[in-house]
Amino acid sequence: MNNSETKNLSKSKTDIFKLNHFILAVFSLCALVTTFFAANSNLGFQTKITVFLLIILLYLFCCACFYVLQKRRLIASSDDAKAEISEGVFSREIESKLLALEEANEFFGASLKPADMFRLVSSRIREIIPFSSSALFLINENNTRLKAAFADGENAESLANLETDIDKGLAGKTFVSRKPQIDKKLLLDKNAISAEALKGLNSAVSVPLYRDVEVFGVLTLYGKDAKDFDADSVLLLEAVGTRVAPLFLSSFAFEKSLFNALTDSLTNLPNERAFYLIVENQIAESQRFREKRPLTILTVDLKNFDELNQKYGHATGDRILAFAAKIIKGQLRQMDFLARSTGDEFLAVLPTADEAITREIVGRVEKAFVSNPFAVSRQEKINFALNFGAATFWKDGETVSQLLQHAHLRKQQSKSPEKSKVLWFPKEYVN
């Protein structure tokens, strides 16, 4: 509808409104005149009463009609106003972009980790509501604090991992009120977030994200200018929030299922499946650089673990395994990867480690077990040792199975009471 048509329609509605008032005024005047003449006429008393009742009924009927017409007009005006707002804010282009967010859940919801999902969502939102920075605040397990789990745009590094009390800052107010909020001069966030994180930013708008009826997080957008966000921004972000919440929830569920599939529940270490994924990638890297990038596979188990398990029970045996996992991992380098295999065996991937570095790492682990006895109870502590077996890429094999075979062989050799008098060979060399 163009401007001239809109003006003509508005003028027509105004004319009808004036006409309705004119008709009501004329009818009221006629009712008064009729009542006057009826009262001063020679009609009988019963007839006058009848005339008065008819005038009252007609007047009430006219007023009722006028009320209905006015109410319809108000409803129509309200609908027109909403339509104008909807047409202005939710244009066809915006609607198509909002629809794209909904469709993203079907394509990416069950296949992207939360960090990747947030970057995807942030880029899509920027097309709908321009902003300088964005952050996703999530509630902690105790429901006491909000943490900026992910951030994008300017100041992303400073915004990421920020924590605030549940009722502080714009995110806190949004979480508690369960309604979208605007902070045009960052008055709320300046009292809750560091100045470094807000450097160059002067406004913000946020929306709560729901899991069923519970709020699980807050999505916040930051702008450079105090006028970057307005009432339209709130409407748009509210529409965005309802669409991106399922995306984040699907992504969290995917990460949790992936974690469970690749993690040992007893020690919280990666499991054997994760070990194979990592070692394959490391072998590929070592193949590219050959001698420049050594790689060692280390197998470890606990000496006499079966005896300890039988003596102290399986519950204590599980505690011993968790204790051993913590000590071993604490002595590895940051780049090293430790996984639990089966039983009491652990597997370690040591990138860039040659034989000398491997001996150094093994020595650190052994010393750590000597200096950290395991507390069976308050009265009893025990020390236990480990068996190690190592295999180096290229020297001992070029595949995972070859390396593991040599590492297991050397671990078995370390258990022999007369190591120097016994020669050990892989099975394929026996015949």
Q: What would you note in describing this structure?
A:
The protein is of the alpha+beta class and 431 residues long. It has three domains: 3-89; 94-261, Beta-Lactamase (2-Layer Sandwich), CATH 3.30.450; 272-418, Alpha-Beta Plaits (2-Layer Sandwich). It contains twelve helices and twelve strands. Helix 3 (92-108) packs antiparallel against helix 4 and helix 9 crosses helix 10.
Write a compact overview of the structure shown:
The protein is α+β, with helices and mostly antiparallel strands and 431 residues long. Helices cover 55% and strands 16% of the residues.
Helix-strand blueprint:
Blueprint: H1 3-39, H2 45-89, H3 92-108, H4 114-128, E1 133-139, E2 145-153, H5 156-159, E3 163-165, H6 169-177, E4 181-183, E5 203-211, E6 214-223, H7 231-261, H8 272-289, E7 295-302, H9 305-312, H10 314-331, E8 337-340, E9 346-351, H11 355-371, E10 374-375, E11 381-382, E12 386-392, H12 400-415
Antiparallel strand pairs: 1-2, 1-6, 2-3, 4-5, 5-6, 7-9, 7-12, 8-9, 10-11
